[in-house]
Amino acid sequence: MNTILETVMCMLFVAITACNDGRKEKEQMKMEAGKKEMEAKEKKEMEMKKMEEERKAIAMKNCIAGKAMATEYLFTLVAALIVADLANMLSEPVDFTVFTIK
Prior knowledge:
Layout: H1 2-62, H2 64-69, H3 75-83, H4 87-90
């Protein structure tokens, strides 16, 4: 009788252990899938951020502040734009009217 009880206990132990392994594998697969999804999302966000930075760089080259920064003799204007924190505002893709002295 004791041997039968030990055999049943061993079988239960093996069955419970086997069931837990299946759960662990499923949980691990879910975690890996979630990790891959998160990595893909982060990669996409980084690409979007890079594209935004490139767009801003192109806009800066074509804007008033960017053109002033590229011209040596407009250093006073550039300094004023930076001090007044207007360089970013003037780099936005909108139309501005600029009055200058000839």
